[in-house]
Amino acid sequence: MLDVCLLGTGGMMPLPHRWLTSLLIRYNGRMILIDCGEGTQIPLKMAEWGFKAIDVILFTHYHADHIAGLPGLLLTLGNSGREEKVTIMGPPGLKKVVEGVTVISPQLPFPLELVELSDSEESEQYKSNIFITSIPVDHTLTCVSYSIEIKRQGKFDVEKAKNLNIPMNYWGRLQKGETIIMEDKVIKPEMVLGESRKGIKICYCTDTRPTEGLVPFVEKADLLICEGMYGHVDDSHKAVEKKHMTFYEAAILAKHGGVDELWLTHYSPALNDPEEYIHDTKAIFANTIAGKDLMTKTIKFQ
Fold it and tell me: What is the dihedral of CA 237, 239, 242, 243, to 10 degrees?
């Protein structure tokens, strides 16, 4: 199973009742953080999941409300006693941005691995047993959306293993996808595994206009966390001008992508009550939830 915590739901600036948009994902005791704007450490502390196990930090883009909290977070990780490498991923320009903001957090007790993602095509990374896929989207500067996926091998077939006379001490390695050489025979995992089973897929999409590539990218996600900068349909011109999405557009994306559940986030500071517009949004995609700070969910394998 995989846990998610929507740390904050605000766009542009933190408010007394709303932290900036950020997502924390936990799997097998390790964590991934997506975006880290000003003040993100406060909801991180309130979530009570800890800091030390954050292995990967993903950035959608480099506007301040998504990255200004990084140096403080890195210092907190260092103070927690972390010495293992922390991987930071983001679109082109990552190295320059990280070097700039970490001027105030020098001499960290752990190394940083910086991975710049493509701004022209889909790219995939593998970290902490999770597949992290990014796709370029349409914002006022280079920006990517993310898919976080845990893929599952097929179920181990004991009878097939016995018929092939494979000793039990090899079964675990085959189940993990490892090819083994047994005397003069090569045994591949597919020889003893059934069809692949459905894994878990979470998509995170913010600061973009709807794009053609987003529908297949989020397809069949268990959870889509998507920006709804504006709730009222009359604000559509603002969304076009500033390259954001409305509730309506997020719901259309969820519907066309066939996702299981939609959480709205990244609200405009002027949007005081997202619930005011949720009824009309549900008319388009029924399983829509207006995201709230510190909202959590556990997603289990089917």
Answer: -130
Q: Are residues 47 and 111 in the same domain?
A: yes
112 and 145 fall within a common domain: yes
Kindly give the interhelix angle for 94-101 and 70-79, rounded to the nearest 10 degrees.
70
Q: Look up 260 and say whether it is catalytic.
A: no
User: Do strands 185-187 and 30-34 pair parallel, antiparallel, or not at all (unpaired)?
Assistant: unpaired
CA distance 177 to 155: 11
Residue-by-residue DSSP string for 156-197: B-HHHHHHTT--GGGHHHHHTT--EEETTEEE-GGGTB-SPE
Question: Which burial class, exposed, middle or buried, applies to 23 when counting CB atoms under 10 A from its CB (0-12, 13-18, 19+)?
Answer: buried
Q: Out of 35, 55, 65, 207, which one is annotated catalytic?
A: 65
Structurally, the chain folds into a number of domains equal to: 2
Q: Please compute, for residue 229, the number of CA atoms within 13 A of its CA located in the half-sphere on the CB side.
A: 22
Verify that 7 and 84 share a domain, yes or no.
yes
> Which residues of the chain register pLDDT less than 50?
none
Q: Which domain holds residue 227?
A: 2-153+196-299
What are the tens digits of pLDDT across the range 115-134?
999 998 998 898 877 999 99
Distance CA 80, CA 50 (A): 9
Same domain, 49 and 145: yes
